[in-house]
Amino acid sequence: MSARSAFDPRVHLIREKYFSLRPKPLERWLWSQGIPASAERVFWLHWQEGHQRGDWCSEIPLKRVARECCLDPSTVTRSYQLLGRLGCLRRTDPGRDPSNPFQQATAVTEVRVPRELLIELDRHPNRRRAIGLTPEAGRAPAVEEVTVEVVREVTRPADPFAGLRGRDRIMALARLTAVMSATEESRYREALRVHRGHMEFDPDSALGAQERGRVLQFLACVAVEPVRVIQPAPAAARTASVRKLSAFELARLKRDIQSATSVEGAAELLRQVIWSIEEGSLQRFSPLHALHIALKKIREGAWTRPHRMPPNWTRALHAARETCRHA
Fold this sequence. Notes:
This protein is mainly alpha-helical. The strands form two sheets. A three-stranded antiparallel sheet has the order 1-3-2, with helices on both faces. A two-stranded antiparallel ribbon has the order 4-5. It is globular, with a radius of gyration of 24 Å. It has 14 helices and five strands. Helix content is about 45%, strand content about 5%.
């Protein structure tokens, strides 16, 4: 690099100042949806904060979002509604803080990848890795890396809507589902929910043979996933691994417990439920299923303190709070 380019302000911006990372497929998908620029600003702000925290969740007050995105609060609210409908954001109220019950709680926002983009994610090129550089260089392996994962290649069926943009794909699917009967649409929704690549049609279905083939081909596209063969980790590593609830799940659990019991006992109940889900008897269930089991027992008055729970067990319920950084 020449001496002149070293004083170039563009070089100075790249080398010295902070910048954000935007995955190209996700950015192009947002462009194809034709969403306003204000909604893009809100999404990328939460994307950056969630990436820095490591759990893709963030707790940013609405006024701060409006200030950092140079928008008014009403525009931010409309952006949240639009991004929620597109499946890009998910928000939940964490419940009241007992130490400050008169202050509105900051919602927990989780950024998500829309299903339409997940279907066509494999078509986008991957970045080339530098030869000789591995992610493990210079750091100790994490507990999760002890398991050996082998991914076998699976041939993905051809997409029946190849070449269509996101909005056009949605409209093409809507035209197919509009012709379905109520029973067929119920089967179709269930097949999407459980990632099943097949569904049954009525004998007198209004869909033609070609249309039924497109529906089945689309379900097959959604259902196909790489076959993963997991070799079990050593016993020491398995005992060391503990499932952790995400910040979004913790916020939802805290809110539901506060609505099901008194505020005074909510903190202790929250501590017991978290231990039971992460390390106790509810660990064998999926997080959402375990949450529903615990909440049902609390509402029915059947919840009891876990037997093997240490008396002084605790863990941080939130990641480190983000601080305002000014240039």
